[in-house]
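Sample log: Sigma-54-dependent Fis family transcriptional regulator.
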Amino acid sequence: MNILYSWLGKTDINNMKKDVSGPISVIALKMAQPFDKIVIVANSWDEDWIDYENWLKKKLAIAHRPYEDVSINRVRIASPIDYKSISDVSQKWINKLSADSESLYINLSSGTPAMSAVSVILGKGKNNTNFCQSREGGEIFIDDIPFNFVAEYDASVARSISSKASALPVQSKAFKDITATSNQMKSVIEKAEKLAELDLPVLVLGETGTGKEVISNAIHKASNRSSKPIKTVNCGALPENLVDSILFGHVKGAFTGAVKDHSGLFEQADGGTLFLDEVGELTPDAQVKLLRALQQGEVTRVGDDKSTNVDVRVIAATHRDLSEMVANGEFREDLFYRLAVGVIEIPALRNRMEDIEPLTEALVNEINSTASKYKNYKAKSISTKAMQFIRSQPWRGNVRELWSTLNRALLLSNNVEITEQDIIASLIQRTKKDNNLDVHLSLGDVVDLNKIKEDIERAYVTAALKATGNAKVKTAKMLGLGVHQNLDTLLNKLKIELPKKRQGKKA
């Protein structure tokens, strides 16, 4: 059985009154294979339904086509552009008609764009459904819509998850969204809030992955410049020959390829904030140009003979020790002091243990939320043992490393509750480099090698115990000691006592 399904359009009614074919009648009369049944749905113009139905049956009879099973059916929708109610109605009819027919044809020419869009999305999920339209002049054609919406949706969600997992966690909407349970981070947030109000230049210091950009964005959003843009530039990625153009702009014809005027980041951030990420990577020449712009409060586009005043707040960030770089002549002292009016140093994650558990929970919620759109994903939680293991790790890549590890664990594991083994499997093993100690001794110096050796052993044993949660077998393996009895001997020698375990628990 061939069935035609269509919304009733105003054009269909108007053309009927002129005894001229509209979209529905054109398709019904000219489709190569006649329709055994025609189902029309409508929510308005009900005073014309009987006339239209009789008129269409008459046209079909004259054309020697099946005409007995033609019906207009009342449906209730909130409005002709309300996707939800249109979807509810369409799903009911398309599901039923697809099941009752060998071939279901859906007319996309009648009704509103919302009705057509919903029909396409729902119809593409049926293997016996086709789409047809009519053009002015009575021509009809079958639409070959080259999309698998289910596959496209899954692919889109997968790309979204991938993009999210490889980026930084959000946590930057405002200071209140930044995880700060430890006293160290509470102090950082308090200082950042004060600096946000004062409109001073800020230098944000901290290891890679500690959240320098998160804090910088929060400072901008809490400042009186929040209604203006914040522009970000990674100073380590600035091509030396394009520094001037990127930061200060250029005029048309200033150099080969300058086909039109271009405003630099300073002008784009006028009234707002310019975030200079990895400012310690700037070349000496770029440092000079940046200092000049900060001192004068104006910029000159490449190839221009006039300057433009700019009102920009600068927030700079780096993982490098700028003080040491200044001492070594690698960073301009005058630029350093111009940037370092307000200084915020973000502690490493391993130095704010109280933040690890709430931060982990916040990141897990964020990952679950992002991945929830994927049909095969089930929300995950972290087991008690897995959380204990997470707390024991040094996280040398800080929040970024924790974020990446959790993404791997949650997205790749089939367990609804993430285990300690899931986290271990998701860690990226780092290659240990040999320490080439450059030792200098003067004649007469005395060193205690046994004491040095003992201090080194104690440091490594303590770190290994922490990483394994005081598990002797794992610790012995990590330290290359073989069986755990060798570890017991070393613990006694170093006078290291393990916390007493509850009765019934094995070491």
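Observation: The two ends are 72 Å apart (CA to CA).
Observation: The mean pLDDT is 87.
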